[in-house]
Structure formats: structure tokens, C-alpha cells
Design a protein that fits this description.
The protein has helices spanning about 5-25, 30-60, 65-95, 105-150, 195-200, 240-245; strands at about 150-155, 160-165, 170-175, 175-180, 185-190, 205-210, 210-215, 220, 225-230, 230-235. The protein has two domains: about 5-145, no CATH class; about 155-245, Beta Barrel (OB fold (Dihydrolipoamide Acetyltransferase, E2P)). It is of the alpha+beta class. The protein is about 55% helix and about 20% strand.
Length: about 250
Amino acid sequence: MKTYQHILFWVLVHAGLTLVFTRWFQGAVEAFYYVSLLLPVVIGTSYFFNYFLVPRYLFRKKFLQFGLYASYMLVVSLCLELLASMVAMLVIIRFRSNEAGPLVTDVFTLALVMYFIVFLKSFIMLIRHYFKDQRAIRELEEKQLQMEEGAFTVRSNRTSSRINYQDVLYIESLADYVKIHRSDGGEITSKEKISHLERQLPDMFLRIHRSFIVNKTRVTAFSSESLKIGETELPISRSFRKKVRPALQGIQ
């Protein structure tokens, strides 16, 4: 998630909890103060659980450590929640709020509200992680299959064209289409995105620029700023230089 998405998410959570507690406080202002003091505990617990414990231990299948540290987190966060609840009640009393309903002072209910938010976000992260892994596995399988076959397929002029890896000199991105330059002098145009082709192609191909992918075995010379394939000179962009030079070290 991007920064603005995180901010929007917690603004919506704050608004939702304020609406929930308004009915027990019989006033939106008191509920707003209460949720504002409670929310930092919710946010801290959520980010520690979802962005530290889950990726470091759960995703790496260190279940024992994950369970142990998650238990510690629950104890600490519950203590912080009790403290936040007490401070919030003192603030509300100072503002001469009406007596709060019994549910507001029920620590277990507050814990359920907080942990529901934390674990709901965690569940969403796990689902996204699962589908991301599945997509990566499918792409790896497709790449392995293509390596075995020694060719890849692109859509060109409403037909599928199979191209041998060794026949490709380089791939050029032009506006909304790509042009595949072949060793026989021919060219194939396709609506495929260059980023999609980059994920499909094996390691013998190298991205040197946002607009160029080259066949490393066809490179005849290179410098820090450009390389040659035959008589054709292609630029190496600054953002790709660090990985291009090591990849081409074997070329004389």
C-alpha cells in the first residue's frame, strides 16, 4: 500500500470507530476523543504485527517464533490499551461527559475491536501474498517451459508468432507497441508490453533501458553508456548501468 492509502485506511477506521462509540457516549465529541486516544495502540499493534512479525516469521514459516512474539505483542498491546482507555475516560470526565455505557469500559470488547482490525488487515495481506506467490510460480513455470522449448510466443497482427531466442537481436519499445529485431533483418511488432516480455524471457536477455532489451549473446561491444549489436548502437540508461556491466563482463 502507498502512503496515502495507509492514511485513508486509518481515517476510515477512526470514523467507523467514532460512529460505533457515539451511541454509548451519547455524543460524537466524546467518542472522537476516546477513539483518538485508543487509535495509536491499534495502529502500533497493526504495523508491528503485519509488517514485522508476519513477514519476518510467518512468511518464512518460523511458526514457533511467530507464536511466541505474537503472544508477547498481545500482552503488551492489551496493557497499552488499558492505559489508553483510562486516559481517555479521564479526558472525557474532564469534559463532563455523561456516564459511559458498560460496553465502553469492557476491556475485552475493546480488545476484540482492536484485534479484529489488526487480524483483518493481516488476513488481507496473507491473501495478497498467496496470490503474488502463485503468480510468481506461474511465471517461473512459463519461463522454464520456454527455456526448454528455446522459443517464446507473441501476438502480432492478430496471430501468434513463435520466435527462437537465438533469432532475437534486441527488443525495442515504441509508444504503445514493441518491435522485435531479428538476426535475419526482419522485424516483428506486437502490442505486448516490454515489461511483460522482460518477465517472460530467460537470463540470456538483459534490460538496458526502459525502451530496450538485448540478447546478451549478440552484444559485440559495450561501454558504460552504450553497447553495440553489430553496427547498431543502443543506449544504456543510468538506472540500469549497475546491473548491465556485471552481466556483460564476459564480452570482449
